[in-house]
Design a protein that fits this description.
With 305 residues, the protein is an alpha/beta fold. It contains twelve helices and 13 strands. It starts with a helix and ends in a 19-residue tail after the last strand. The strands form two sheets. Strands 1, 2, 3, 4, 6, 7, 8, 9, 12 and 13 form a ten-stranded mixed beta sheet that branches. It has a three-stranded mixed beta sheet with strand order 5-10-11. The chain is 39% helix and 23% strand.
Length: 305
């Protein structure tokens, strides 16, 4: 009896091992199959959500989880290998590339769109124009009667880093500068407070969530005069394409997986025809304009009455 029990136990063990082995083979990640976490700069989350939705709808065996974080957190996770695929508003610096080289990691960097930082104000403010120098002066601690306060999404966000670099300041002023956690919170605060200038990713305005659609209608997107310009330009696709809007920035997907996995497949998708059409529809500027086929007819056939 003991002998048969041992044999039965061995059979069960072999069966379970075979099942687990088969499952591991089926669950093997490829460029179009598997599951992966992608860490995304919070200021550009809407466009990434759209890309993921279409990608998963096209490739049913792919599952991508989007994790929004501030730029500082995102880059730290990437350098510490807590994240392997990220979407950012800037390329890696030379110092960061050196750190990857020491870890024998070669990041794959794929540009896929041009985004913009937008200045917004309450609808009660009839002035829809603002000079970039005015905002920079305020960042440098010089008060201005037209600005009661600057409102950012997060102290560690890409928008704060971008504006600090423009203003050439190490820290933002303590007085007159406010920060929240998300772009939605900034938009809502500005919509309810006159004189405040919000600094947000334009993607949150061109693609507001259903619960934010009415709130966005209560704010103005300001036209901006650059430091070396006498004209005011808006964060539109046209002004981005003609390199006129002064607060444009490129978007990148950075893949540090080190193998042909889902990160590579998703990057190829975003940079490909479908992904670029999604960017175009979102209001941002794609890296390459998707082609269109035009059917030209020699004559127009009228419908029979």
């Amino acid at each position: 009896m003991l002998k048969y029990s041992k044999i039965a136990g061995l059979v069960v063990f072999v069966f379970l091992f075979a099942m687990c082995n088969q499952k591991s083979k089926n669950d093997k990640e490829t460029i179009l199959k598997g599951a992966i976490d992608i860490t995304v700069d919070e200021t550009i989350k809407p466009i990434v959500d759209d890309q993921v939705a279409v990608f998963e709808g096209t490739y049913y065996d792919a599952k991508i989880t989007v994790k929004p974080k501030s730029e500082a957190e995102l880059i730290n996770d990437l350098l510490n290998q807590k994240a392997t695929v990220v979407v950012t508003t800037r390329d890696l610096t030379k110092e960061e590339l050196v750190k990857f080289e020491k870890s024998k990691i070669k990041p794959r960097v794929t540009p896929f769109a041009t985004d913009a930082i937008a200045f917004i104000s309450n609808k009660g403010n009839n002035d829809t124009l603002i000079a970039l120098k005015t905002v920079i002066d305020f960042m440098q601690g010089k008060p201005d009667a037209r600005i009661k306060g600057l409102v950012f999404d997060n102290p560690n966000s890409s928008t704060v880093r971008y504006m600090k670099e423009l203003a050439k300041v190490k820290d933002v002023p303590v007085k007159g500068v406010f920060s929240f956690k998300t772009n939605d919170e900034v938009i809502k605060f500005v919509s309810e407070n006159d004189g405040m200038i919000g600094v947000v990713g334009v993607n949150w305005l061109s693609q507001p969530s259903p619960n934010m659609a009415e709130v966005v209608k209560k704010i103005n997107v300001l036209s901006v005069k650059g430091l070396n310009s006498n004209q005011y330009y808006s964060p539109t696709q046209n002004d981005l394409a003609e390199v006129k809007y002064p607060l444009a920035r490129d978007l990148f997907i950075i893949n540090c997986q080190g193998y042909s996995g889902l990160g590579m497949g998703f990057a190829s998708f975003i940079a490909g025809d479908i992904g670029q059409r999604i960017v175009l529809k979102s209001g941002l500027l794609p890296v390459r304009t998707p082609g269109r086929k035009l059917k030209i007819r020699n004559q127009i056939v009228k419908d029979k009455e």
